[in-house]
């Protein structure tokens, strides 16, 4: 006889990805327990720091279907155009929202805004949802019927049985390690300096991706006339720049970016983040699956990490919803067939996006003779060839390939 579970879904990790999944599962509804190691009231998780996320249109649709977009929208900035170029080289490309027939190519929003909106939603009374934070999963084991997990909260141990455990606990996933799933890592030996600034000229919704010999420099529009700077540099050089005084840092940033937005004016607090790509060798284990950075983490060059993770969220929520509807008696969200459908659906998208971002880093980071000229001609060709920009725009906007219902403005039911 099947053992009765305490919940259908146990989500480990309450950052942006795990909390988004919990918010999606509330609408099905299925009994869900979300376990987060830190107290969400202080919003100290790495997901909730001063970084900025570029939301694709498909991601905006997902948030809208989860009734979160109305709260986020007031603090989001529409991206009207994207300018792509290389420092000191001819050739550039520009993608324009009007030319692509959309109101915006995407939106930028600070991670802190997303985190607060998600946890405010999870704090609302909801049948079937339990949030445990701060709490940790100390160990777990799977059997034919589900997963038995030991939880620790406020020094006390308890046991939870779930049909499926979903790991949303980041690139260094403890769940992945406990499953014995290996992960391949590409260490770019780079660091990203992240800082918000104001500029002399209005950004007018323009985003810039500028490739330099030392790494890409992204300047993204933010509300209030600010811009977010994500400046990728070799590790040692990044640390040197972090040590510069504000005036010298501004001068160096201006030298690398140029004057497309006039002078950089007010410089905010700088933070430094290591860059690497991590790819899990498997997306599922017995009664478990990996989503977000636990499955694949990316270089930020194309701003695709959170968008990819939200498609993970929307996909598993859809499969769980379908299982609830299809079940004659009791649904089993962790059945092998459900996990296999998730793996088959997501593996292609994850591999494609991981290869795309990795290829950009390698291509524009190459100093081989003649590569600069080839890149310049490539950007010109990309700008002129019919359909090339539209095809890339569809992918970066999250509108290509097999999309889950939430990304198509459809409900889970």
Describe this structure in words.
With 413 residues, this protein is α+β, with helices and mostly antiparallel strands. It has two domains: 282 residues, FAD/NAD(P)-binding domain (3-Layer(bba) Sandwich), CATH 3.50.50.60; 87 residues, 2-Layer Sandwich (D-Amino Acid Oxidase, Chain A, domain 2), CATH 3.30.9.10. It is built from eleven helices and 20 strands. Strands 5, 6, 12, 13, 14, 15, 16, 17 and 20 form a nine-stranded mixed beta sheet that branches. Strands 1, 2, 8, 9, 10, 11, 18 and 19 form an eight-stranded mixed beta sheet that branches. The radius of gyration is 22 Å and the shape is globular. The chain starts with 6 loop residues before the first strand and ends in a 17-residue tail after the last helix. About 7% of the residues have low confidence.
The overall average pLDDT, rounded, is 85
CATH class of the largest domain: Alpha Beta
CATH architecture of the largest domain: 3-Layer(bba) Sandwich
Beta content = 25-35%
**SS-derived structural category:** alpha+beta
Q: How many separate structural domains?
A: 2
| Silhouette | globular
Most strands sheet? 9 strands, mixed
């Amino acid at each position: 006889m099947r053992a009765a579970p305490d919940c259908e879904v146990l989500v480990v990790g309450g950052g942006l990805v795990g909390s988004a999944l919990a918010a999606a599962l509330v609408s099905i509804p299925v009994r869900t327990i979300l376990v987060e190691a830190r107290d969400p009231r202080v919003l100290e998780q790495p997901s909730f720091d001063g970084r900025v996320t570029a939301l694709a249109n498909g991601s905006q649709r997902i948030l809208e279907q989860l009734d979160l977009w109305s709260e986020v929208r007031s603090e989001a900035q529409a991206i009207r155009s994207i300018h792509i170029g290389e420092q000191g080289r001819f050739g550039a490309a520009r993608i324009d929202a009007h030319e692509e027939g959309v109101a915006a190519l995407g939106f930028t929003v600070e991670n802190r805004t997303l985190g607060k909106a998600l946890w405010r939603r999870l704090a609302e009374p909801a049948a079937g949802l339990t949030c445990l934070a701060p709490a940790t999963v100390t160990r777990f084991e799977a059997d034919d019927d589900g997963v038995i997990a030991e939880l620790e909260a406020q020094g006390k141990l308890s046991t939870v049985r779930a049909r499926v455990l979903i790991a949303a606990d980041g690139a260094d996933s403890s769940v992945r390690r406990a499953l014995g799933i290996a992960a391949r890592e590409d260490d770019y030996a780079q660091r990203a300096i992240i800082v918000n600034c104001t500029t002399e000229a209005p950004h007018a919704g323009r985003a810039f991706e500028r490739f330099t010999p030392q790494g890409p420099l992204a300047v993204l529009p933010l509300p209030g006339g600010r811009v977010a700077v994500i400046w990728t540099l070799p590790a040692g050089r990044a640390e040197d720049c972090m040590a510069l005084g504000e005036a010298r840092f501004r001068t160096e940033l201006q030298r690398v970016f140029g004057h497309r937005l006039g002078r950089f004016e007010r410089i905010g607090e700088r933070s430094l983040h290591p860059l690497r790509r991590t790819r899990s060798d498997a997306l599922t284990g017995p009664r478990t699956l990996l989503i977000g950075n636990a499955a694949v983490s990316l270089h930020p060059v194309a701003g695709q990490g959170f968008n990819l993770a939200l498609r993970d969220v929307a996909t598993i929520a859809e499969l769980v919803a379908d299982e609830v509807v299809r079940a004659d008696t009791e649904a089993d969200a962790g059945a092998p067939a459900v996990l296999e459908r998730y793996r088959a659906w997501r593996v292609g998208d994850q591999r494609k996006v991981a290869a795309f971002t990795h290829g950009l880093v390698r291509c524009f980071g190459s100093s081989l003779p003649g590569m600069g000229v080839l890149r310049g001609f490539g950007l010109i060709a990309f700008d002129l060839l019919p359909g090339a920009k539209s095809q890339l725009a569809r992918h970066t906007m999250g509108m290509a390939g097999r999309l889950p219902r939430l990304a198509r403005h459809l409900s889970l039911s």
